[in-house]
């Protein structure tokens, strides 16, 4: 049975994502993290060993959740519906979590090596779920081509911290979905 989620820990991770995205990992102290959730800095140590543990937990959590959701969606027997599901899921993630995208882009090198390797492993596995769906849709497509298309698609979708400000959420989600689907089918 999976462990019961700790709401305080999740609150800390959410606050840390916003702080790290705005001020950078090195610009945030344990005291800052504690204050953001109404704790003293030392009280934060009941939940995390240190600031690098917060960063690692944040990126491991989102990588694991994306991978698990990708596995679930990719299991859809119809590859076109699976692709639409993967796109909807990642578009929602990108629009709802711009701070996490920013933190990952800027701060992954600050994650301790063992956790960084696991984050990368989960991310590669998530990509391969997408690649598998693309290859089910077009079996003659070279795997390397499909993988490159998925990475390019993620570049488009994960640009939302910079591109999503001008449209309402639904309009941006629709635009991203159409653009990403066209890119993957190119």
Explain the overall architecture.
The protein is mainly α. It has one domain: Tetracycline Repressor, domain 2, CATH 1.10.357. It has helices at 7-23, 30-36, 41-44, 51-74, 79-96, 98-107, 113-137, 143-157, 160-163, 169-185. It is elongated, with a radius of gyration of 18 Å.
Sketch the topology as an H/E string, one letter per element. Answer: HHHHHHHHHH
Give the termini distance in whole angstroms: 43 Å
Largest sheet: none
Radius of gyration: 18 Å
The CATH architecture would be: Orthogonal Bundle
Overall, the morphology is: elongated
Brief summary of the model shown:
This protein has helices at 7-23, 30-36, 41-44, 51-74, 79-96, 98-107, 113-137, 143-157, 160-163, 169-185.
How would you describe this structure in keywords?
Tetracycline Repressor, domain 2, mainly alpha, elongated, 76% helix, 10 helices, 186 residues
Detail the topology: elements first, then pairings.
Blueprint: H1 7-23, H2 30-36, H3 41-44, H4 51-74, H5 79-96, H6 98-107, H7 113-137, H8 143-157, H9 160-163, H10 169-185
């Amino acid at each position: 049975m999976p462990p019961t989620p700790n709401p305080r820990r999740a609150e800390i991770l959410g606050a840390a994502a916003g702080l790290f995205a705005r001020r950078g990992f090195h610009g945030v102290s344990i005291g800052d993290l504690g204050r953001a959730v109404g704790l003293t800095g030392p009280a934060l140590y009941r939940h995390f060993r240190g600031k690098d543990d917060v960063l690692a937990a944040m990126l491991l959590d989102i990588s694991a959740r994306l991978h698990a959701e990708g596995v679930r969606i990719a299991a859809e027997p119809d590859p076109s519906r699976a692709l639409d599901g993967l796109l909807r899921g990642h578009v929602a993630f990108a629009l709802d979590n711009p701070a996490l995208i920013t933190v990952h882009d800027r701060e992954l090198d600050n994650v301790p090596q063992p956790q960084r390797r696991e984050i990368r492993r989960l991310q590669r596995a998530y990509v391969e779920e997408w690649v598998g769906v693309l290859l089910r849709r077009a079996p003659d497509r070279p795997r390397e081509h499909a993988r490159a298309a998925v990475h390019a698609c993620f570049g488009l979708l994960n640009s939302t911290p910079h591109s999503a400000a001008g449209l309402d959420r639904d309009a941006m989600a629709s635009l991203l979905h159409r653009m990403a689907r066209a890119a993957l089918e190119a």
